[in-house]
From TrEMBL:
Signal peptide residue numbers: none
SUPFAM superfamilies xref list: Protein kinase-like (PK-like)
Keywords (A to Z) from UniProt: ATP-binding, Kinase, Nucleotide-binding, Phosphoprotein, Serine/threonine-protein kinase, Transferase, Tyrosine-protein kinase
Domain Protein kinase: 63-331
The protein's name: Protein kinase domain-containing protein
Length: 351
């Protein structure tokens, strides 16, 4: 479920909190960066302050509801305002209290910066986590005011290559940030790429994410079976599918490839145009069919075709890594200013 979208940057919202509140407590902030290196396991990350701690000093009753933004399997999202200020946020309240919800909270804690750090501009920020009466977490998120790229697709169809290259570059930067903190997103898709009127696109919704690095840097095998069917890689359909850090990151790369294809074509690329989707048909196409690719008749550059092919190897060991994709000509050689301008214009015209 897309969490909704930011009328103000995380830094500005955090500044509002700091004017109201004393200095927050401290806790774990970030996981090691070099999780793929064949070397000694990294040491435990130091415990540092993060802006999320302000949730310990404010109450849910300090926020006024403005509007409903969405209701999905993992929670309900509303637009709220901090009383006595102009600061607005997306408040995601989990439907349940349990291990799944706590993994989402931990993922959000890991991506939050310390006092001397900065937010990733490619991941939706979380300012605080509150607890409801039943213990369910309520996450105060950056509000993205243009909705999701799924909404953009529904209003205009596919994206031109320059705008698409900018989206792909931002997704890769966001995935690099998440993976460096031991988080596999596992539900990357247009509906979870949230946009703003400034032209920003950020990764949101960590409801099926998994933590593949422990606090002391120990590597974990995690379940990768949950997620949106059309974006699952073939290995994720296996019974009781689990993966280590490399495999979990490779699952995100596959989902990125499917997402890029969909954003270009303007439709789900797994099934032929017009074919009714079902779990069985999607599984058969993903597991038994050829890897998704751009139609031969599509007016697509060689760079885009090569990028998609690098993401969508059915064998996860052959998929490009995020670092390799960041160096791919499709994103590395784009005209950043022109691509950003085109993406912003498309987002604004569909609001």
């Amino acid at each position: 479920m897309a969490t909704a979208a930011a009328a103000s940057a995380p830094q500005a919202c955090s500044a509002i909190f700091q004017r109201h509140l004393p200095r927050p407590a401290t806790h774990f902030a970030a996981a090691p960066h070099e999780m793929m290196a064949r070397a000694a396991r990294p040491a435990a990350a130091p415990e540092t302050t993060t802006t999320m701690d302000v949730g310990q000093l404010l109450r849910l009753s300090d926020f006024d509801k403005i509007a409903d933004l969405g209701d999905g399997a993992s929670g309900v999202v509303t637009k709220v305002r901090l009383r006595g200020s102009s600061a607005v946020f997306a408040l995601k309240t989990a439907h349940y209290c349990g291990a799944g919800a706590e993994v989402e909270v931990e993922a959000l804690r890991r991506v939050a910066p310390g006092p001397s750090g900065s937010w990733s501009p490619y991941v939706v920020g979380c300012h605080a986590v509150f607890r409801c009466a039943g213990g369910e977490p309520a996450m105060l998120l950056e509000l993205m005011d243009a909705g999701s790229l799924g909404r953009v697709l529904s209003r205009r169809g596919g994206l031109p290559e320059p705008a698409l290259a900018e989206v792909a570059a931002g997704c890769l930067a966001g995935l690099a940030h998440l993976h460096s903190r031991g988080i596999a997103h596992l539900d990357l898709k247009p509906d979870n790429l949230l946009a703003s009127a400034r032209g920003d696109v950020k990764i949101g919704d960590f409801s099926v994410s998994r933590i593949f690095l422990g606090r002391a840097g120990e590597r974990r095998r995690v379940s990768v079976a949950a997620g949106s069917t059309a974006y699952l890689s073939p290995e994720r359909f296996e019974p009781n599918a689990h993966a280590g850090p490399r495999g979990a990151c490779a699952a995100d790369v596959w989902a990125l490839g499917v997402t890029v294809l969909e954003l270009f074509l303007g439709r789900c690329p797994i099934l032929p145009a017009g074919e009714k989707s079902s779990w069985e048909r999607l599984k058969k196409a993903i597991c038994d069919g050829e890897a998704p690719s751009l139609p031969a008749t599509a007016a697509a550059s060689a760079e885009l075709r090569g990028f998609v092919a690098s993401c969508l190897h059915k064998d996860p060991r052959r998929r490009a890594t995020v670092a390799q994709l960041l160096a791919h000509p499709f994103v590395a050689r784009r005209d950043g200013e022109a691509c950003r301008r085109q993406l912003r214009e498309i987002i604004v015209e569909t609001m």
